[in-house]
Design brief:
By secondary structure, this protein is an alpha/beta fold. It has 5 helices and 5 strands; from the N terminus they run αβαβαβαβαβ. About 35% of the residues lie in helices and about 20% in strands. Strand 4, helix 5 and strand 5 form a beta-alpha-beta unit.
Length: about 110
């Protein structure tokens, strides 16, 4: 991993194994898929809520989420979901990102 990619990562990026363990053990977990509708319809993880990162109301939809939940986000490769995670954290939410996205999801 390069120094620059290390800087771009948040402490809340989780490996697929850690992501699944936390998600499965968290009674306040909400799984969120931030891919496009087409990507979402092609298959998602579990019963993920869909909030398209590229939608015009994306930030508004994030702000409307209950703050008493923990958000587990993913996208195709982890980039959009990392940005969404950072947005949520900056708004006072607890959020985690699936590092590497659904491409690395072995379950």
């Amino acid at each position: 991993m390069s120094f620059m990619s290390f800087l771009r990562k948040s402490a809340s990026d989780l490996s697929p194994v850690d992501f699944k363990m936390r998600l499965d053990g968290d009674p306040d977990a909400v799984l969120v898929d931030v891919r496009t509708l087409g990507e979402y319809k092609s298959g998602c993880i579990g019963e993920a809520e869909h909030i398209d990162y590229f939608s015009k109301d994306f930030k508004d939809r994030l702000e409307a989420l209950p703050k008493d939940k923990n958000y587990y986000l993913y996208c195709h490769s982890g980039n959009r979901s990392r940005q969404a995670m950072n947005m949520l954290i900056s708004m006072g939410y607890t959020a985690y990102n699936l590092d590497g996205g659904i491409m690395r999801w072995p379950y």
